[in-house]
Specification:
The complex is a heterodimer. Chain A contains eight helices and one strand; from the N terminus they run H-H-H-H-E-H-H-H-H. Chain A is mainly α. The longest helix of chain A has 34 residues. Chain B is an alpha+beta fold. Classes of the chains: A mainly alpha, B alpha+beta.
């Protein structure tokens, strides 16, 4: 597009505005890496914890520490994606705020439930899982994450009435629908877009 | 016919830049160049005009040892853009 100060017709002006807004909106593509990472880790930890009820291997009880280790790749992913991003969307800061609050809330809830030894704490975590997931899906009008958030809350309700073993199954289901599946969808769309732009 | 329209915005490339910047919080020069398909020189000139009109803020910094230009629409720019769009819609309704 070369600038010229030739008068634009009103139709052409509106067409140009629409075209540019459409281009800007379509430039926003989440890579899905973070969603896949956290979905995968929670699913893995849930599956191992469930298996360990039968295996009874002592050190496997600490499998959830992987969620702390996963912060390292998450930081690397965030830095890399931030560097590659050529623009900042209006919702970016709000989304960062929501997910940082979620991280802090999960950490404090883990600490709280370890100190106080709350029974049925699984429901608390599932309620928390649903909040940022639903908020993200709702903000970006991304249905898989809206559904994922609702699945977390449904699992939270079921968890109130079930035994510990079932909690791990519910964690697995929640992580799959809230993060892993949306992550796969985002990743596929991102790679497709990347291929188109090459 | 278009006497009431803002002359700063009533130009193809400047309008394209403003439309892109309205849609995001801030954008790099390279993003604007890629989306508008304009040449770097031409885009720089038009960005400067928008900056002089105080419709956008331009921030120059370094990213990974490379110079980086970030553009952001100002509240004055948002108002001007809204007025421009309303005026356009007014013409269409006539």
């Amino acid at each position: 597009m070369e600038n010229n100060d030739e008068p634009l017709s009103q139709a052409k002006s509106l067409e140009l505005i629409e075209e540019m807004i459409y281009k800007a909106k379509n430039s926003y593509h989440e890579s899905g890496t973070s969603a896949l990472l956290w979905g995968g880790i929670i699913m893995f930890c849930s599956a191992v914890s469930l298996g360990n009820i039968y295996w009874r291997i002592g050190w496997l009880e600490e499998v959830w520490l992987l969620t702390i280790l996963a912060i390292i790749p998450q930081i690397i992913i965030s830095i890399r994606e931030g560097r590659a991003q050529k623009f900042k969307a209006h919702t970016d800061d709000a989304m960062s705020g929501i997910w940082i609050s979620f991280g802090v809330a999960i950490f404090l809830t883990s600490y709280f439930t370890n100190v106080i030894k709350v029974e049925g704490a699984g429901s608390l975590f599932l309620i928390l899982y649903g909040m940022p997931t639903f908020a993200t899906g709702y903000t970006h009008r991304f249905t898989p994450m809206i559904v994922g958030g609702i699945v977390c809350w449904v699992c939270a309700i079921i968890s109130i009435y079930t035994v510990l073993q079932a909690d791990f199954v519910l964690f697995f289901i929640a992580a799959f629908f809230a993060w892993f599946l949306p992550g796969l969808i985002l990743r596929r769309a991102y790679l497709k877009e990347k291929k188109t732009n090459v | 016919m278009f006497k009431e329209l803002d002359p700063i915005l009533h130009s193809q490339l400047r309008l394209a830049v403003m439309s892109l910047l309205i849609s995001v919080k801030e954008a790099e020069f390279t993003f604007l160049k890629e989306k508008t398909g304009a040449t770097a020189g031409n885009l720089s000139v038009q960005i400067q005009k928008l900056k002089e009109a105080e419709y956008i803020e331009v921030q120059k910094q370094f990213k990974d040892n490379y110079p980086q230009t970030i553009c952001k629409v100002t509240s004055k720019g948002v108002d001007a853009f809204e007025t421009y769009v309303k005026a356009l819609q007014g013409y269409i309704k006539r």
